Amino acid sequence: MHRGYHPLLIILAHAQRSLAKTVTYDWNVTWVFASPDGFGRPVIGINDAWPCPIVEADVGDFVSINLNNQLGNETTGLHFHGINQISSNFMDGAVGTNQCPLPPDHAVNYRFYADSPGTYWYHSHSMGQYPDGFRGPLIIHDPDDPYKDDYDAEVILTLSDWYRDQTPTLMETMINPNNTQFAPPLPNSTIVNDGGNTHISVKAGKTYRFRIINWSAMFSTFIQFDSLDMDVISIDGSYVKRQSAQQLRVSAAQRFDALITIPGDADRNYPYLVALDINQDFADKDPPRPLVYLLNVTGMLVTDSDKDTSGILTVDKFEPFDDSTFGPYDDEAVYEPVDKQLVLNFDYCYDVNGYPRACFNNSTYIAQKVPALYTAASLGENNTETAAYGPVGAFVVEYGEILEIVVNNNNDAIHPFHLHGHQFQVVTRPASQTGNWSAEDVSINDLPPRRDTVAVNPKSYAVFRIKADNPGVFLFHCHVEWHVEMGLSITLIEAPDKLRNYTIPQDHLDACDAMGIPTTGNAAGNEDWEDTDGFVTVPPTTYTG
């Protein structure tokens, strides 16, 4: 069943929430020195420790995080990836969209209802901080898990590319007029569990639920376990019908939950391979670089530590399971009829200063002064005027409408696209080199899988649908972090009539006051929505983090 509103369900939900327990975390965001790949560098940690901690709750709990910015030299904000934030859009954590930057020596509380089970993650949604380490697992356990009798234990497995330079340095190199190839920074390493132990203790005859999370800044990862199948049961927090796969491609921000059974007669250890996806983004166009990249990690499922643990898994070629073909566990049919369609053409572009950017429909996202949610909450009936939000790609969808989003990827590389606030239905995602979407040629899946991040193949497209039943302001963006910083985002204004006079928590408003940012009015803080004086119309040419 989709996550929607029904009057009786709302009453029951409020009753359940009144009885819910609260899981509380007190966090200071701090710099930590770490060496996940053997080379030391500053990373962003929690309470002077890194990797960042796991957040765990049960369905029906409230999660409360008291976040105190002790970085000293950077603002921040915290997003809970995959959490739809129903009735709590101000907790979505996207700086410039749902909140102001949180300045050093200031604190805010993030509190949300754990309405849906699954494997999620949290990360900074500010100035490219999550490649600098500000990220961690977020697990919502399900007492009614339909697969709970099929496994004995759980394992969290995180995958990531890794950079030895900090994000501001990398961004200054990429967003630069000399970068005429729009080349992103290439990682130095691949790390598993943020540089932790790649050896996982298992027992013969037992089945494990692997919660696989890719929180790379850029690259998809391939994963394969030696001679062991992965029975996928959930994608991005959405149950699917159990499906066996030998190999998965996990794009940046995606999650797969898979059951892996260790043979009862196991007499050895089992290596597994994590490999960065070899695609065109590894190739400099001038001069060309061969499409070979050896940033792979071999880990080990260890049944007996006295046996060999030094084995390497060799894979002749990558043929990952097509994740667009998973069937939803609940057999929810495709949303129909479509009320509104948004077609987004992705390509690279230049801004007026000649700096390389990433664009939807020839426009790049430019962050404004006032968070878009605050504009929607304060402009009354004028909050449907997309021009009031400035050049953030605002698109309005009314409550209850079925919205179809088409993404045409005109690039030679695969790109993961993420929508906040929804698990969308992936109604079609054809192969590479298919070309752009055409209504006449599209064949849709009547029982499409749901997820929050879809990988769009090179020179191809994807089509997905949502039911606009979650009032709020939500970003839609590429989850290659470098492309987010280059402007590959739009802003969905969902059910604006239900956002008028929306109440923002006082501690969030206080953060704005500390930054000197207005909290009402249009993008520039003007009460007249048509007054564009003060709009930010040119992207900044410096990057300070």
Automatic annotation (TrEMBL):
Pfam families: Cu-oxidase, Cu-oxidase_2, Cu-oxidase_3. Residues 1-20 form the signal peptide. Keywords: Copper, Metal-binding, Oxidoreductase, Signal. Residues 29-144, 154-275, 367-497 form the Plastocyanin-like domain. GO terms for biological process: cellular response to iron ion starvation; reductive iron assimilation. The keyword Nucleus does not apply. One of its GO terms (molecular function) is copper ion binding. PROSITE patterns: MULTICOPPER_OXIDASE1, MULTICOPPER_OXIDASE2. GO terms for cellular component: high-affinity iron permease complex. InterPro entries: Cu-oxidase-like_N (IPR011707), Cu-oxidase_2nd (IPR001117), Cu-oxidase_C (IPR011706), Cu-oxidase_fam (IPR045087), Cu_oxidase_CS (IPR033138), Cu_oxidase_Cu_BS (IPR002355), Cupredoxin (IPR008972), CuRO_2_Fet3-like (IPR044130). Belongs to the multicopper oxidase family. PANTHER family: IRON TRANSPORT MULTICOPPER OXIDASE FET3 (PTHR11709:SF361), MULTI-COPPER OXIDASE (PTHR11709). This is Laccase.
